[in-house]
Specification:
Blueprint: E1 2-7, H1 13-25, E2 30-34, H2 41-51, E3 56-61, H3 67-74, E4 80-82, H4 89-95
Amino acid sequence: MKAIIFYASPVDEEHAKKIIEKLDEYGISHETQIGSAHKETKKVMDILEKYKNEKVVYITIAGRSNALSGVIAANTAAPVFACPPFTDKMDMWVNIHS
């Protein structure tokens, strides 16, 4: 099993690093991918195609509308864990359902 950390923008890299540290701590193999569901839909779909025959889980990182998590979940049978980079509690409450 491999974790694919998939984030929408280089802006999300710092948040991804925290997740990667924990995966390393537990010895879980991982790869990182970057692609926006809004701006690079074809790229995202091509990346999903790359992993379709592998045992993976996706950890998605995207703020605001968090379309990335939904697009990935709708186009794979693999588990998807959405980990949006909330900036504070207010941001979390506003965007919790995205």
